[in-house]
Amino acid sequence: MHRLELKVPPLIVVVVTVGLMALTAWLAPMKPWHFTDATSLAWTLVVTGGLVALAGVSAFRRARTTVNPMHPDTSSTLVTSGIYRYTRNPMYLGFLLILAGYGVWLANLPALLWLIGYVLYLTRFQIIPEERWLSQKFGADFQYYRERVRRWF
Questions:
Q1: How far apart are CA 64 and CA 58, in angstroms?
Q2: What is the pLDDT of residues 76-86, one digit of tens each?
Q3: Cβ atoms < 10 Å from Cβ of 140
Q4: pLDDT exceeding 90 applies to what percent of the chain?
Q5: Quick check: 118 and 13 in contact, CB under 8 A?
Q6: Lowest CB count within 10 Å: 45, 112, 117, 120, which one?
Q7: Is 11:118 a contact under the CB 8 Å cutoff?
Q8: pTM here?
């Protein structure tokens, strides 16, 4: 286990990524993108991301299991219904869509590169450790679920 695993709450990772995107846009400004619906696309991504993340939280609440990403060991139920039929990490995917919307709103291509960092960091230091716990706790059920449903989308 690496010392960064399950140490930084995903919401903090989102806030840091927003800051890095804003700093990048400030340090490396670009001419605005010239397509008419950039603002609409940005809002569509943000709203869709919010709905995807809320669907994940709602499914956890209905199953009466923890939403706390820092303690996957306290999970009481393996949730595989609702949005979890399509993605194993709807909350993180929702945050990614929100960040993508912010990047479109910034109209700065270099700022969008931080989305890759967000995905790589969360996968390595949050998702993989979560999956280790879930595999230990739910065994073959989690393995079967993992084989059927993608990690991100």
A1: 10
A2: 999 999 999 99
A3: 8
A4: 89
A5: yes
A6: 120
A7: no
A8: 0.94
